[in-house]
Hints:
The model is unreliable at 271-285 (pLDDT under 50). The chain has helices at residues 2-7, 11-15, 18-38, 47-63, 74-103, 108-141, 145-149, 151-182, 189-212, 229-243, 260-277. 19% of the residues are buried. The chain folds into three domains: 1-64, no CATH class; 72-224; 227-282, no CATH class. By secondary structure, it is an all-alpha fold. Helix 5 (74-103) packs antiparallel against helix 6 (108-141), helix 5 runs antiparallel to helix 9 and helix 8 (151-182) runs antiparallel to helix 9 (189-212). It starts with a helix and ends in an 8-residue tail after the last helix. The protein is globular and about 60 Å long. Helix content is 73%, strand content 0%.
Amino acid sequence: MILADTVGLTAGETLGAGFVLAGIAVIGASAAIAWLSLRDRSGGFSAFGLLALAAVILIAQTMTSHAAAQIDDRLLLATADLLHQAGAAVWIGGIPYLLIALGKCPDAVTWRRVGKRFSHIAMVSVAVIVVAGLVMAVAYTGSVAAIYGTTYGVMVTTKVALLGYLLLLGGMNYLIIERLAGDPATPMPRMRRFAEAEIGIGITLFFAAASLTSLPPAADLAAADRASLAEIVERLTRPWRSRHPRAAGQARCRGDAACPQGASLRAGRRRVAPAQRRGHRLVGV
């Protein structure tokens, strides 16, 4: 309704939009997965049906991604996006089920077997995530300067940092699993705590990834819409100067026309104003 009122479209035209159809597909497939998971599994429950519905969700999500809006290399980027989401879903989405399975393990041997199997799945998922993520990062970022000069680049850097934390926790869990082979008395609560922390960081990572869909890729921005390193340094140091007016030469002169320091301050404000007018590019910094 909001879209129809904003652009003057009818309800039928709005419902025919690609992102609306994709959203309906995601909602419908999610509801079907929930129904199949809660119903009596003895009545012809099929894992293939769940996989098919999960594929519908992934394809629908890919249809609303940046890859669908690209002119060049659309198929490559769409495939990378789909694999990237699938790898994250298998890895992060599988951790709660790992905790459920570990809670039903009677001894350390079973703990190690279950943990070892999930570790292998997680390794493959991480490999898919990293390779697909590199393909998209190169295509959407475009240059090293865009990594720190655009909001999109800053959010990609945030995702990489969160992924590093997840890999650290996953590596520590893997060491605990390997230690079980030589010492069955190895305490297990630490492994569960690491897995629970992975879930929390993974959800945060999903939110960071979702925020990228609302930002234009850095490669699509003109050079004038990117913040330079000098502008970033100036923006980060300005609050310190405002809190210490004597250090900035503003103790007795606050932009007065008759004061030489005031003229330099006004000139500095004019230099900063264009950067402020360029919108979102400094917000992430």
